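Hi F.,

I've been meaning to write this up properly since the lab meeting, where we talked about keeping a consistent format for the predictions we share between groups. The idea is simple: the sequence comes first, exactly as it goes in, then the structure tokens exactly as they come out, then a line or two of notes. No screenshots and no reformatting. I'm using this chain as the first example so we have something concrete to point to.
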Amino acid sequence: MRAAVAPEPVQRSRTPHLQAVETAAVAAWGLAQGVVLHGSDRWGRCTAPDCANYFPDTTANRTEQFCSARCANRLTPSPP
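Output, unedited:
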């Protein structure tokens, strides 16, 4: 019977610079995955005037206008 050996945790340097580089790498990987999953033509830019976000438009006919409900609610008047 063999004893189970737990892997040793990797000691990483957590300097702010390396943490920023690691965060950027994860963000780039996520963006690449979004392009692979949805295609580059499925990305839209939020139409709210003070928002510069891009988002994957997953609607069937590519009609999404806003990156979030928050942006949509700011421009859509509430019913009386």
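Notes:
Helices lie at 16-38, 69-75.
Residues 20-75 form one domain.

If this format works for you, I'll send the rest the same way.

G.
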